Amino acid sequence: MNRREALRRTAMIMGGAISAPAMLGVLKGCKAEPTINWQPEFFTREQGALITEVAEIIIPATDTPGAKEVGVPGFIDKMLKDVYSKQEQENFLAAMKAFDDRAKEERGDSFIDLGPEDQVAFVNKVHEEAVNAHKTDPSQPRPFILMAKELTMLGFFTSEPGATQVLQYSPVPGAYKGCLPIEEAGNGKTWAT
Amino acid sequence: MNLNTDAEKKNTFDAIVVGTGISGGWAAKELTEKGLKTLVLERGRMVEHPNYPTATKDPWDFPYAGRATQEDLKQQHKQARTGYTVSQATKHWFVNDLENPYTEINRFDWMRGYHVGGRSIMWGRQSYRLSDLDFEANLRDGIAVDWPIRYKDLEPWYDYVETFVGVSGSRDGIAQLPDGKFLPPMELNCVELDLKDKLKTKFNRALTIGRTANATAPLPHSPLRGTCQYRNLCSRGCPYGGYFSSNASTLPAAQKTGNMTLRPNSIVYELVYDEKQGKATGVKVLDAETGEQTEFFARVIFLCASTFGSTFIMLNSISNRFPNGFGNDSGELGHNIMDHHLSAGASAQVDGFEDKYYSGRRANGFYIPRFRNIGNDKRDYIRGFGYQGGASRQGWSNMVAELSIGKGLEEAVSNPGGWTIGMVGFGEILPYHENYVKINNDLKDKYGLPTLTFDAILRENEFKMRKDMVSDAAEMLDAAGYRNIATFDNKIGVGLGIHEMGTARMGRDPKTSVLNKWNQVHACKNVFVTDGSAMTSAACQNPSLTYMALTARACDYAVSEMKKQNL
Fold this sequence. Notes:
The complex is a heterodimer.
Chain A: H1 3-13, H2 20-26, H3 45-58, H4 72-83, H5 86-107, H6 116-136, H7 144-157, H8 160-166, E1 177-181
Helix pairs in contact in A: 3-4, 3-7, 4-7
Chain B: H1 2-10, E1 12-18, H2 22-33, E2 38-41, H3 70-75, E3 103-104, H4 132-135, H5 137-141, H6 151-165, E4 167-168, E5 182-183, H7 190-203, E6 208-209, H8 246-257, E7 260-263, E8 266-274, E9 279-287, E10 293-303, H9 307-315, E11 340-341, E12 344-350, E13 356-359, E14 366-368, E15 385-393, H10 407-414, E16 419-428, E17 436-444, E18 450-455, H11 460-479, E19 483-489, E20 520-521, E21 524-529, H12 544-563
Parallel strand pairs in B: 1-2, 1-10, 2-7, 3-18, 4-5, 10-21
Antiparallel strand pairs in B: 6-14, 8-9, 9-10, 11-16, 12-16, 12-19, 14-15, 15-16, 17-18, 20-21
């Protein structure tokens, strides 16, 4: 499905704009049932649930929509299916499995079966390690968390909410001004394109 | 008997133009405006301004964030070599490589699209004049053959085409990059102005805004042309007519005369030569949709089908008079493939300017004209290179690893990142007889036509030049006080510059060239070739403006010769 469709369906099922943190609050202390409200074409439902939660941790809803609401999980699924080569798909799935295996080892359960606080803590830990490793040796193959992060950001910042609410976007600028005080360059945010 | 004559009459014109790209559009305009009933044949489908399918789509309108899928890459695996031609926004402008194959003895990159307008839809629009430094180069270096023209021959035609096209730029007084008839220049941004200043004081070198065929002011003589809206989506086609394309500019002018018959889906595969008359009488056309073969006749024929398009037609036109290809007495047809070699340069991070930003998306960059092998500068190679580049504030894609995740990420990305600046060299490739293309009758394309086999490589002069392209860029960025300088020198194929030229070169002597000083085939004066095939040397400047000037000049000559009954 395309992002617009994903967005519409998500809002419908969630009865409007319930943000992920709010939902997490309701489910605090309970094991979240790992369901997703979109149909993966490449991932299994479990893999889809994993990527959904990870994406939302990377870009959570704040006063602007998060990764889930703009359809990032479905976008990642499509990218894996159609854009990634066979080798890249295998690398990604292997890295995802390693991520999940580590969650089982360190936190006692598959990632999608962990409680929300555990998920966030685990992702943050894994991410910090990955960033440090990348600083030390950028030539090393990217761990799952950085691959997921890149895809999440790509999907988010090319989405309409991402490009127009978090960044700024002008479809027909009409003029080019090369050297402006930053606050006079539109609203001073990063241009989306 | 009558039927044949009627059919022939229906298919007979004053002039035939093959191709509707940069040069074909100009030939169509000039010949029709001078009163010739002109058949304009385009092998590809019709594309009519302002119908460009992806032109106004927003980023979220494309699947895959606009990236090519594996299936796209399979169908267009050679077109994808640039890294940018096969995107969801532009892939429909480039050929299907499986249907239009070619053979490469060494890696050869041939990027093109078959449709009305050709690459005048997707081109980079950079428009620079050649100077006598370039026209005299072969003679001075004792290389290949001398150009049969000089700058003064082309100057009034550069004036003429620039005025119609609308080239924006600044008059800089640089001898090796002659000034033109310019519309107002686009702005350089703060960091680019900083580099410009530093190059002047530290190296006495020029940096100027790119000279681009984008209209920064209205062009009242061209009704479909609007002004550039700074969307920087030019290669999708521009419904505003903001930049020069055949579709928005020359073809409408030709249409207006009432003298043009435009026939898309018409693949010219052979010239028809009449030995008794000693001239070409017409062309053979294969209809791309029906497979029907038809002959069309004319007094004068302009081959503007792109370098390899026109060269193919000539190589495929075998007769008793021309056993080695049309007009190929010299043996040079198909040889001397040139291009600009690129993908070598440097980039850097720039401190400061944190309080400055730009607005609008400028469809242009800066240009550093050639400074090597000029005056007293003597390198261990001949000729030179220019740089195209730009400065910008980093977006998120360079900061994936660095950025913290969670709530802070959006905040961080929404603040414009640090400034970076980079430049890529465009280097002149010398004319080597050994760099050539030939017909391959063993591999047919989807229409059953023979295909082309390429054998062209970069050689010693180019590799030595590339060393400077890298180190000069790094040196300039370093001297400007920028940091984290990263150089690059990527392995490329000839053709990647998408400025392929030289395979039916102009020259003074029919024994060593294919065309004369008027772009006429030496051996058959009613056939003109005015696309990149004609180029005798490549210079380092983007060549399309020169193709336009050569075309307009050749058309003027052709018509005056026709009036004198010489053609």
